[in-house]
Automatic annotation (TrEMBL):
InterPro entries: Cys-rich_flank_reg_C (IPR000483), EAR (IPR009039), EPTP (IPR005492), Leu-rich_rpt (IPR001611), Leu-rich_rpt_typical-subtyp (IPR003591), LGI_related (IPR051295), LRR_dom_sf (IPR032675), WD40_repeat_dom_sf (IPR036322). Keywords: Glycoprotein, Leucine-rich repeat, Repeat, Secreted, Signal. It comes from Denticeps clupeoides (denticle herring). Residues 164-213 form the LRRCT domain. One of its GO terms (biological process) is inhibitory synapse assembly. This is LRRCT domain-containing protein. GO terms for cellular component: extracellular space. It is found in: Secreted. The keyword Nucleus does not apply. Residues 1-27 form the signal peptide.
Amino acid sequence: RPAIMIYVDNWRWVTLFLLCLARSAPAKRIFRCPAECTCSKDSVICVGSSFIPRTVSNDINSLSIVNGTFPEIKEATFSLMPSLQLLLLNSNSLSVIKDDAFSGLPHLEYLFIEGNKIGTMNKSVFRGLRDLTHLSLANNNIKLLPKDLFSGLDSLIELDLRGNMFECDCQTKWLIDWLKRSNATVSDVYCNGPGEKKGLRLKDVPDQHAECITTDFVLHQTLSTQSMSAELFFYKEDIYMALAVPNSENCLVMEWDHIEINFRPLDTITGRSVVGCRAAVIHGQAYVIVTQLFDGSHVYRYDPKQNKYVKFQAVEASNISKPNDIEVFPIGDEWFFLVVDSSKAGLSTLYKWNETGFYPYQYLHEWFRDTDAEFVTMEGKPHLILASRSQVPVIYQWNKHSQKFVLHSEIPNYDDIVTVKTFQINGALHLAMACYIGDSKVVRWTGKQFEEVQAFPSRGAMVLQPFVFKEHQYLVLGSDYSFSQVYRYDEKKQEFSKFREVYVQWPRSFTALSTDRRDFLIATSFKGKTKVFEHIPVDSSL
Ligand SMILES: *[C@@H]1O[C@H](CO)[C@@H](O)[C@H](O)[C@H]1NC(C)=O
Ligand SMILES: *[C@@H]1O[C@H](CO)[C@@H](O)[C@H](O)[C@H]1NC(C)=O
Ligand SMILES: *[C@@H]1O[C@H](CO)[C@@H](O)[C@H](O)[C@H]1NC(C)=O
Ligand SMILES: *[C@@H]1O[C@H](CO)[C@@H](O)[C@H](O)[C@H]1NC(C)=O
Ligand SMILES: *[C@@H]1O[C@H](CO)[C@@H](O)[C@H](O)[C@H]1NC(C)=O
């Protein structure tokens, strides 16, 4: 017994002594060279080790571990070897290197992590290696590296990234840019993809700035009202929106709030079976034309004193039975609007403004169940394109002498079109024509006729709406049964490519608004809420 007690006491004494030493001087710890390693005074080499020895002498200046079987390097793994100048971790099974793995190594100059299974790493992995001159990550499976990975490595002279699987997409843009301006010598690294970039040297990848700045549509405001259409109008330097809200029998006028950056209600025009709602600003006066299934159509005029729209006129509508769309337009200094009638018994009717109101002016296109009209100037002359359920779209031309629209031609091969919208690409007139189920189409005016440009598979599409944001041409195809698809025009390919999806329940219209240096897309819904999306730039290289 006494012998054991003495032993214990001695052991305690030894421990205390060591602790004192450790505190007072940078110290001689006692360590045993692990079985897989060969140790000398200032270096350790381990082969086939299943762990990283932590307690080797803190004087060593080189540590090599090869053919090891450990999968990761944890934070501050080498902090007990502060004088390390060289660390070689080749041919281990490393796949994970944690942030700050090499912290506490201010003198490390050479770091080799070659022939492992590293796919990527976090950006603070090499934090604190301010003396590092040589770094090799050769022969791993690296596809991408995080931005600024090398930013604290102020002494770096040589970097080896050969034998990896770099994807030269937007996420590698920073590395490509860094390689172009870095002072370190970097052996040639090649792209593994994507597509035609495979085999290209990273340094030779052309500038990707444009392709890496993209945009997204983010929900900005939700209006708790269903609606069939949203029409923007500008009146006395303010922006307004007229929403047709059939289920609550009204036409809602909203005002854009430049401070709150959203729409707020201004006035509700109550009606009976309201189906359409369009604004017209004529000689400085704001009007709203409201079409209804019953009780005819009415024109309301804005009264600044009451700050609301008051009934101005009941328009003669005896030939209209199912109004579907209203198109308001000027020809010269005369104002017109057309009510498109979608019943077999009705007539699309053109109204003309005189001092006292709108009066029927011309009946168009009998018995054809019209769906939509678009007013457009073609070859310098006013035209109306009229789509219908039972016929291909027809084109009317304005006749100067008779002061009437005259049937001019048709757009063959496109039956059953629900909406027609015009837009320009590089100065050429295009039409976007929505087909409910089948293919919606974009056609281009050649100077003689319309020729097809592209088809868009449609699953319950009530609208194919073109719009322009920040010089990009977009098209959004509504869908009653899925996501609505946003397409963007690709100048190189000269066609629209799929860009984003937005979800709107039974979308009925999309309206673009650019104001306060921001871009918005208003989506009306027949069954759900009206949504305002903001179109925001996203740098996908970050
Ligand atoms: C490492 O392992 C490989 C294959 O298992 C073997 O060929 C090589 O000789 C080993 N290297 C060392 C230094 O033991
Ligand atoms: C990388 O960072 C993320 C987020 O900070 C963290 O969840 C993850 O565990 C880190 N991975 C490594 C290997 O350190
Ligand atoms: C490269 O070296 C030059 C000259 O010493 C220096 O001005 C420049 O900042 C260095 N570039 C980087 C990225 O360190
Ligand atoms: C349109 O309505 C007017 C007035 O009710 C009527 O006189 C005229 O015959 C109608 N026109 C057509 C083409 O039905
Ligand atoms: C406007 O047109 C209507 C119908 O044709 C007519 O009754 C009215 O007198 C006209 N008003 C003016 C000021 O021309």
